[in-house]
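quick one before i forget lol
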Amino acid sequence: MCQPVRVADDVSAPEVCVLGLGLIGGSLLRAAVEAGRDGWGWNRSAGAVDAARADGFDADTDLVAVLRRAERSGALIVVAVPMPAVDGTLAAIAEHAPGCPITDVVSVKAEVVAAVARHGLQDRFVGGHPMAGTSQSGWDAGDADLFRDAVWVVSADDGVDPQIWSQVARLALDCGSVVVPAESVEHDAAVARISHLPHVLAEALALSGAAGGDLALGLAAGSFRDGTRVAGSAPGLVRAMCEGNRDALLTAVDETLDVLHRARTELAARGTLAELVESGHDARLRYEQRERWTITDIEPGSANWLERMRDAGRRGGVLQP
């Protein structure tokens, strides 16, 4: 009989050191501690650290001290800073905590993998990306339940250490997520379509509504509200996310422009949007009807385990607690 992969039952749970206490990093520290993990965090701004301490969490603004503590304890380091700050953060890790296992929660993977390699940390690194968030930011926006039932991608790139991969997967499971294994370049192509492109379209839709003046904005209801929700995200975070995945996002934007151009041509020439509306409706139903299934009998470190994990992830397989 096939048995589910029991990462959470079989793998050690090292302490967790979270670098960056914004929405995602702050939520991760909360969730990990609530799950019984020992953890602490760092943030550059004193305001976030003071707020975290006021909420009862262990946090500091001294990056060197935080990393040396991680090195002494063998903690799993989680890089939770925006993409422009990743390189400097990795440089500090390479200097002060080179022996620690490392993961990240940045929304692009290939660029992070390249930065990790530049600092000689590739043997200790397994990428991650929790597919969760809100339009808010900062420590105060964090929530221990943010990752509950969410997908958390754990990178299944060639050469990753199976023990560290399992530790990262266990952290995701402890935070309440289900784990989808995926190769970094494939991940970036996918999230360009379902995460980064929606941000671009939300900004464009918000501009269209504003161009209609106060009357249009006064009439706006659910479809406009839902379609522009992520346009409320901090512009700097949106730029870092989207620009960090430029090539894959350009492909998605070009394909969407082709779809819109065909729809405009059909509307102008024939007075109908039938192709766009019917095809889009079918695509939405495919999303709604897609079901997860549990990955079984793939032991990290076994023969061809990465290839098998990637294949399972492509077909909708997940690891669950």
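fyi Residues 12-182+291-318 form a domain with the Rossmann fold fold (CATH 3.40.50.720).
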